[in-house]
Amino acid sequence: MSITKKATVMAVGLGLVTLSACGSSDDDHGSGGAARTVTLVSHNSWAVSKEVLADFEKSSGYQVKVLEDGDAGQAVNKAILTKDDPQGDVFFGVDNTLLSRALDNGLFQPYEAKGLDRIDATFQLDRDEHRVTPVDYGDICVNYDKKYFEDRDLAPPSTLDDLAEPAYKNLLVTENASTSSPGLGFLLGTAARYGDDGWPEYWKKLKANGVKVVDGWEQAYNEEFSGSAGGKAAKADRPLVVSYASSPPAEVIYGDPKPATAPTGVAEGTCFRQIEFAGLLGNARNSEGGKALIDFLISKKFQEDMPLNMFVYPVVEEADVPAEFTEHGPAAKKPLTMDPAKIADHRDEWVKSWTSLVLK
């Protein structure tokens, strides 16, 4: 879900600890030419249960080292700049909003992962060449503070159109589309909904209706949004925020005390789908270890471990989804989507236009 962020551990921002630089040093590319370390490069939201990772290391014979490189955009850009001498063997976290940038720059080498037949074709955006493997998906959506709207006997918004209505003036906070993955996803969602020519007019309406723009998700969700645990502590005053469909389950799971129902809801008509991928880096030193690691990422064990660690949804069809997700944050039934080729053609132009229109 990157997505991405993706709704991820760091994106949820509720006290989880991510796995960082686990495994051994680069010296473990060891004796006899047999590489014992496989290095995963990712954004800061990577996380996995220790026991699940330990099972992979034991069964495969590889130790996993994780290098976290900032948010999804920053990590992708750095991977491209270092592609001739990559930091690792596998890159995880490029999503459909940035996929074309990675592919056009030759970041990955082809690898058809074991188990692809268990993943729906709609997630396999590079299925002819297999340069990337889908690992997870999530939905970027407007979240709302249930109590705020209940106290005022006001129906929360359910669509993008609603957000521009006078009833919701000065209520929405979103992230900067040029610096934030959810901010970019929300912009793309409006372009998918209103078209190439219609989205600027929509954003003019949002601006006139008092939308607030901040740099990133952490600030928007945990400092500006009144419905989150962090926002309550900060006495935030915006009851609408661009976040993820999986944010309400996180508020339940990590609530103290744990609430019976989520204090936040999702405006389903605002959702844009984000898919995250992993790929074998073009000049990987340990390509065999990298292939084994990619196979692990779409194994049933990892896929079922992933939701409660990174707050994204599994792409493998038979993977079970935690009850908290199905009850408090199911994936959108009809999310907005956009062909990655169209994103590639227009992303930079749209972000530049958005910046001029909304921030100046």
Notes on the structure:
By secondary structure, the protein is of the alpha/beta class. Helices cover about 40% and strands about 20% of the residues. It is built from 15 helices and ten strands.
List keywords for this structure.
360 residues; alpha/beta; disordered N terminus
Quick gist of this model?
The protein is of the alpha/beta class and 360 residues long.
Strand content: 15-25%
* Total DSSP helices: 15
Outline the low-pLDDT stretches.
1-34
Overall mean pLDDT = 89
- Class computed from helices, strands and strand pairing: alpha/beta
What's the story with the biggest beta sheet?
10 strands, mixed
Q: Which outline best applies?
A: globular
Q: Report how far apart the termini are.
A: 30 Å
Rg value: 20 Å
SSE order in H/E notation? HEHEHEHEEHHEHEHHEHEHHHEHH
What does the secondary structure layout of this molecule look like, with pairings?
Layout: H1 9-12, E1 37-42, H2 50-60, E2 63-68, H3 72-81, E3 90-95, H4 99-104, E4 108-109, E5 133-145, H5 146-151, H6 160-163, E6 172-175, H7 181-208, E7 212-214, H8 217-224, H9 229-233, E8 240-244, H10 247-253, E9 264-281, H11 287-297, H12 300-305, H13 307-310, E10 313-314, H14 323-328, H15 340-358
Parallel strand pairs: 1-2, 1-3, 6-7, 6-8
Antiparallel strand pairs: 3-9, 4-9, 5-8, 5-9, 5-10
Helix pairs in contact: 7-15
